[in-house]
Amino acid sequence: MCTPKSPSKEKFIVQTRPLHFRHMRIKNKLSLLIASIVAITFTIALIVQQYAFSVYDEQLYQKSSTVLHLSSSVIEQELQRIEQLSFNIITDAQIQTHLRTIADSESEYDMLIQRQRLADRLLYYVGSEPSLHSIHIIDAHGKRQNLGRVIPISENKISSMLIQAGEGSGQERWTYPDASDPALILTRDIRSYSGTLFDLERIGTIFIRIDMDRLVHQFTSQEGDLMMISGHDVIYPRLPQVNPAEIPSSFFKNDNHGYFIREWEGKSYFTAYRKSAETGWTYINITPFNEIFKRVLFIKSLVIYVFIFIFAVAILWGVRFSRSLTKPIENLMARMKLAEKGNFAEANVLPPDKEPPSRDELGLLQRTFRLMVERINVLITENYSSQLLIKETEFKALQAQINPHFLYNTLDSINWMAKVNKQAQISEMVQALAFLLRNSINLKESLLTLEEELEIVKNYITIQKIRFGDRLSFHLELESVDLQRRIPKLTLQPLLENAIHYALEPSIHPCHIAVRGLTDQDLFILVVEDDGPGMDNDTLERLRQNDMQTNGNGIGLLNIDERIKYAFGDQYGITIDSTPGTGTRIQIIIPNEVEESSYVQSSSGR
């Protein structure tokens, strides 16, 4: 009888198959990765190639449409310039005068003179425009003045142009090229006006024949043939490659621009068109399709070369990546085995021929592992000594709690003994010393009010006054509102100690030390100054840079400056100024912020 083990075995196999990739060697994973990259690259290449063919027609349209738009814009700008030229001619004061004189004159001689002057004036305009064949003006008596490259014009055509000009009422009208004349002709009536007088009486008609071949070749440069049509009338060229009548009107969509591909006489042509909003003319660019098909071949070749290049780069990069990835991992595994056996010293040493680790993730992992092994080794050797140090520190902390109480009691005994023996000066000095000792040891408050800081200063000055007597003169100038400002603890006392040490002690003369308060907008400045010997520039600069070794063990100026900056910000601190023979001035700069004061107390010097 069969046992039901087979289903469980199949279930086990199904569960372990997804884990097969996880247990593959890194080299095999990289091989699979490279194969995937090549496959993806090949797929992308095919997609790009197909996309290139799919957008080919659109690219042709965009290029042809852009070139056609530029060409048509340039041509229309030139035609507008010629229209402006015709306007300048018909509004020219001299031409207006000559034509009005001819219209009003009855003398043939006077008319002959005016026509000659009119022709001389027209010479100026004919020579200024290279795109013109000729300029013709017909005066009020039907006589025509012709200048430029003149060809005979039939009377029927002249009559037709006169009718068109009359219908335009002074606006330009166009006569398209025909078999007898390849020029595009601009026609407009000449109306009379003089200064502010506008009677608009017709005094003549102007014809301007435009050389379209020269205009197009001079101002445009594009592939294919350019055509300009108005309906079925050809404006340019004289002998078009395609008859406009053969182009069905359905090809020109309702849009003002577009493209289509059409065969004429067995040849395929790519045709882009644009309809002008100004003139209503249609600009057509006709390009043989076979001439631009070479771009498709170029795109196909480009895609193949790109694919080959990507394939080669992927293979080379994959091999180098595999080597750079597996070697550091193998080296790290060897070190881990040494650390596993407890050989931390050897696991932390690089072989003599080994290059320093790289700066990528694997290099960072190697350096981190080495630091971890080194740290473990240090912790093992230092753990016991660290425990002993903790015990010793705890014992010293207990001793530090006992010593201050003993000292306070001793000073208190000295104080009472001085009072019993009526030694008031000794009693005052001991009380001041005890106050200073309590405040220097008390670390609960890092910021004190200026009033509390001054209590420390006054007790310190009390001791120094007993020591130096009349040689020390101390003066305090502060407003009562300033007493509630907060400053770091032990800010003023070290500065006064420096003043006594460097200004009073070296001198046999009395020394004046003053503390003043100043307000400057958002700043409050405490000034500590003395009239001692001062400092030279070299000593002052070294002191500002904290490059000067002091004789005492007190709080340095840099320490005070750093505590002020830490408490209020980098824009605050202390400044030092000193002049040899004059004295030293130290400014403590803090924010101009005053806490609410519970009382008002005047301050005075001592």
From TrEMBL:
Give any GO molecular function from the UniProt entry.
phosphorelay sensor kinase activity
The record places domain Histidine kinase at 492-594
Enzyme Commission number(s) of this protein: 2.7.13.3
Per UniProt, the enzyme's principal EC class comes to transferase
Gene3D superfamilies in alphabetical order:
6.10.340.10, Histidine kinase-like ATPase, C-terminal domain
**Domain HAMP: start-end pairs:** 323-381
Where is it predominantly found?
membrane
InterPro entries according to UniProt? Bact_2-comp_sensor_kinase, HAMP_dom, HATPase_C_sf, HATPase_dom, His_kinase_dom, Sig_transdc_His_kin-like_C, Sig_transdc_His_kin_internal
* Catalysed reaction equations from the record: ATP + protein L-histidine = ADP + protein N-phospho-L-histidine
**Locations listed in the record:** Cell membrane
Q: Which Pfam families match?
A: HAMP, HATPase_c, His_kinase
Cellular component terms per the entry's GO annotation: plasma membrane
Cross-referenced SUPFAM superfamilies: ATPase domain of HSP90 chaperone/DNA topoisomerase II/histidine kinase
What keywords does the record list, in alphabetical order? ATP-binding, Cell membrane, Kinase, Membrane, Nucleotide-binding, Phosphoprotein, Transferase, Transmembrane, Transmembrane helix, Two-component regulatory system
Topological relation to the membrane, as annotated: Multi-pass membrane protein
Signal peptide stretch:
none
Q: Which residues cross the membrane?
A: 30-53, 297-319
Q: Which named protein is this? A: histidine kinase
Provenance organism: Paenibacillus lemnae
